[in-house]
Amino acid sequence: MYRKLRLCSNSGAYEAIPDPPIPLDLAAVRRTLERVGIAVVDARVMLLVGTTPEATISRNGRLLFKTRDPAAAEVTFEKLRALLKLPGAAPS
Question: Domain map of the chain by residue range?
Answer without folding.
Answer: 6-84
